[in-house]
Design a protein that fits this description.
four-stranded mixed beta sheet, 5 helices, alpha+beta, 149 residues, binds zinc ion
Length: 149
C-alpha cells in the first residue's frame, strides 16, 4: 500500500482506463463522494441532538476536507463510502478495468491512513464511519468523543 504513494502522476494516467469506458463513467456518476445519503443521514442525526458542526471542513496542512468537523473539540469525521474505501462487508472489486479500480481503492485507503496520522499529530481526533453504519450509532459515538475531549 505504501508503494502506491510513489506512483507518479504520469503512471496514474497510464493506469487509468479509457475515458470511453462506459462502465467506469457509469459507476463514477452513480457513486457520489460528497454529500452522500450516509453523510446527510448522519448530519440529520447530529442536528437532532442539537450539536453544531462544520461540513466539508478544510483541514489545514492537508489537501483533504473532513466530511463533518467539530473545530473547537478538534474532532474530524469521515464517512467512508463502502465502494470507494473498500468496505470488507460491501466493497466490490469491479471486474472491468480491475487493476485500475484496485489501485484507486487502495490509494484511497492509503490516503485515509496518512491523513489520520497527520491529523492525529496535530491534535485532531479522527473518527471514520462506513456509510453502512447506523447514523444514530455514529452520532452517538461522535457525541461520546466530543464529551471526552
Ligand atoms: Zn459497508
Amino acid at each position: 500500500v505504501r508503494a502506491l504513494h510513489l506512483v507518479t502522476r504520469s503512471q496514474q494516467k497510464h493506469l487509468a482506463p479509457h475515458a470511453s469506458s462506459a462502465s467506469v463513467r457509469a459507476r463514477m456518476q452513480a457513486t457520489r463522494t460528497q454529500d452522500t445519503s450516509a453523510e446527510l443521514a448522519l448530519r440529520a442525526a447530529l442536528r437532532e441532538r442539537g450539536i453544531r458542526y462544520r461540513v466539508n471542513y478544510k483541514l489545514s496542512g492537508t489537501r483533504s476536507r473532513a466530511d463533518i468537523a467539530f473545530v473547537r473539540g478538534r474532532v474530524a469525521v469521515f464517512v467512508d463510502g463502502c465502494f470507494w474505501h473498500g468496505c470488507p462487508d460491501h466493497g466490490t472489486w469491479p471486474k472491468t478495468n480491475e487493476a485500475w479500480w484496485r489501485a484507486k481503492i487502495l490509494e484511497n485507503r492509503a490516503r485515509d491512513i496518512s491523513i489520520g496520522k497527520r491529523l492525529g499529530d496535530s491534535g485532531w481526533t479522527v473518527l471514520r464511519f462506513w456509510e453502512h453504519v447506523d447514523p444514530r450509532e455514529a452520532a452517538q459515538a461522535i457525541m461520546d468523543e466530543i464529551e471526552r475531549r
